[in-house]
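tool=predict chain=A
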Amino acid sequence: MRLEDLPTPALVLDKRALTRNLERMQARAKALGVRLRPHLKTAKSAKVARMALGEGGDGLTVSTLKEARYFLEHGFRDITYAVGLVPSKLEEAAQLMREGCDLKLITDDADAARAAAKRGAELGVVFKVMIEIDSGGGRAGVFAEEEPLMEIGRILAAGPGSTLHGILTHAGQSYSCPSTNDIVAVAEVERSKAVLAANRLREAGLPCPVVSVGSTPTALFARRMDGVTEMRPGVFVFMDLFQSGLGVCSEDDIAVSVLASVVGHRPDGSKAMIDAGALALSQDQSIDGFGRILGKPWRVAKVSQEHGHVYPAEAGAKVEIAVGDRVRVLPNHVCMMAAMHDRYHVVDGGDEVVEVWDRCNRW
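tool=predict ok
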């Protein structure tokens, strides 16, 4: 099968670019002296996970319990569920543990910690729980310097249905850095806040075996990871236009695109329409609109539900194309784009589809 044989829109994964991205991050983890625990919320694929970790490797991060089950069924046991725990999901988490999953949970809430400590005992398990730290991203987490960290730590360590497994943070602010020097600075803030939180817990006699940080920009530009035990980047597996805009990768490193068919065009070359709209590309925007056309000076400037509006991205350029022709759209935010599709059509640097890989979507 070749790309021209596929129904469109279709998600295309270039295995060569994927392999380069994985090898780059593996080398970074080794150089920094930390464990790589990739966040699979981007790929949601056992094939990608196996390549990222190597044969016999384990240790993943997921964003849903459905993902945790999917990866458990594909032979991965060591899994961190990196979304704040909800008491109503503890029974499902306990069932995964009974089936062999070495599951780690996170929280930044004292009441949720109490629920885990109590419910774990009732369910006959001991939940491994990590405390989420806000290292500047502002999304979630307690502050390393403040008392809630210690309160949650004491609750989890006291059990009986829980244990304090460590701390976890994500420097989401790295995605808006204007320069690589700014990413370096954010990486050091992320590291120092995580280590401060871990040291405070340990000085109080509480366990903190794992110090976990994560983001693709900080993982690739951190100068050091002293005191950190693992990192959890995710988007690095595929990269996207946001990452290339930060200087984290080149456009050639973007491993995923959406194959689309031209369904209309203007004779003067001012515009074309493709059959990939918001439901195939997502609605995340950048300076390139909703995505850039691979190998062409064109961009998807507008989307409706099933249509993408392709315009020239450079002065003097024209969209010279015919109805039925195929184009590939590079993603702004690859996690969101990939989530719109149920499989990867894998190519190896060319147009031949060499494999089809599944994904674990939804919840």
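The CA atoms of residues 58 and 99 lie 16 Å apart. The mean pLDDT is 96.
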